[in-house]
Amino acid sequence: MPETLSILDRFLVEKTEEAIIDGVQLERWARDPNRKVDEELLDLDRPYKVPNKAYGYLADVEISGKTKSVIGARQEVDFGTATGPDPEGQLKRYVLGLFMQTAQWIRADDRQGGFSFEQMLYCRNDGQIGRHPVEQRSGLLDWSLIGPKYRWSLATIFLHDFVVALGPVTHQFSEAVAVVQHPDFIHIVERPAPGYKLEVAIGYPFIDYAPIPNYFGFGPGKFDWAVKLFSFLLKDNNQVKCNMDFVAGARPKKVFDFGEHVPCPLYGTATVLESLTFGLYKANGFHDWMDTGMAAQHSRVHQALMEGTSKIYREWVRSS
Predict the structure, then answer these.
(1) Other CB atoms within 10 A of residue 167 CB
(2) Residue 88 within a domain
(3) Residue 43: inside a domain, yes or no?
(4) How far is CA 72 from CA 124, 151, 182, 205, in A?
(5) Is residue 11 part of a domain?
(6) By C-alpha distance, which of 287, 307, 311 is closest to 299?
(7) Three-class SS of residue 172?
(8) How far apart are CA 154 and CA 159, in angstroms?
(9) 2 part of a folded domain
């Protein structure tokens, strides 16, 4: 690493290398067609225009020889239809060069929607590590550059649809995560399954770092390790599906984190109730319910992303 890198930069580089090692293992597990998890259909509790299904699951995954507990969220979305003489090429161009790069908009109430990005650090194929130039930090790198030019690139994603309902009160939080573009998370597969012509998949591991500090015990920037995967599937009739999977762990010990020595007001209360009832009340059941709710919250953020990006995709297909 060059001497010009700050202490924070060096910390982020180390976290990036760790995230790649763990993330590749999670990605292989998530993409394994033979994996077995018990899924629960999630109620996202909001109306959406784009047809979708969301499933949550709690599972155990082996990472670097150790069994770890994870929270997962898998989503299926009817994304749109490819057209023209080369639908396969069209889908590749969109997923690799436009999907993430155009995933932001202004809503009717003047709020930002979707995701916006800021480049941080990179490692080129020759091993050179550095910070992206200031004039190039806005946006996300074209995925076709990951591998041929860059070994990895670290970016911040600002989440503009992180809306949490606490009883009758709804609040939009300013949240961000740091993720890594890496070639092992890019897949272009012909005839991936019967009835499908092409799969174009991208994804990224998260680093254990919160660009915007928050009080969540498990949430943006608070994962020990996590991956997000987007698989765009082109059917024989040129309809496009987007399947998403999110795997994060270890399962949280706190919902809200107000300090090392401050008990979680939710999980802590559940533990006290279990003690007071001599085990009649099961804290683990409450934990499972809350963790599944976290999977639903993640799915709401990404279904909002699909609502906006599918509209942009349809307009881009018409214009091209």
Answers:
(1) 5
(2) yes
(3) yes
(4) 32, 27, 21, 14
(5) yes
(6) 307
(7) strand
(8) 16
(9) no
How many whole angstroms separate alpha carbon 129 and alpha carbon 112?
32
CA atoms of 184 and 146, how far apart (whole Å)? 9
The pLDDT score that the predictor gives to residue 272 is 72
CA 104 to each of CA 137, 211, 304: distance values in angstroms, whole numbers, following the listed order = 16, 19, 11
Do residues 71 and 251 make contact, with C-beta atoms less than 8 angstroms apart? yes
CA distance 59 to 30: 11
Instruction: Identify residue 155 by its one-letter amino acid code.
Output: A
| Residue-level pLDDT, tens digit, the chain, 320 residues | 788 899 999 999 999 999 999 999 999 999 999 999 999 999 998 889 999 999 999 999 988 888 989 999 999 999 999 998 999 999 999 999 999 999 999 988 888 899 999 999 999 999 999 999 988 889 999 999 999 999 999 999 999 988 776 566 566 777 899 999 999 999 999 999 999 999 999 999 999 998 887 777 777 878 889 999 999 999 999 999 999 999 998 787 777 777 776 777 777 777 777 777 877 777 778 778 888 988 999 999 999 999 999 999 999 999 98
C-beta neighbour count of 10 within 10 angstroms: 13
Containing structural domain, residue 142: 7-319
> Which among 182, 176, 215, 177 has a CA at the least distance from the CA of 18?
182
Number of domains forming the structure of the chain: 1
Q: Which two tokens stand for residue 222?
A: 């608070």
Q: In sequence order, what are the beta bridge partners of 150?
A: 124, 146
Of the candidates 114, 102, 70, 99, which has an alpha carbon nearest to the alpha carbon of residue 245? Answer: 70
Please count the other Cβ atoms lying within 10 Å of the Cβ belonging to residue 16: 25
3-state secondary structure 6-62: CHHHHHHHHHHHHHHHHHHHHHHHHHCCCCCCCEEECCCCCCCCCCEEEEEEEEEEE
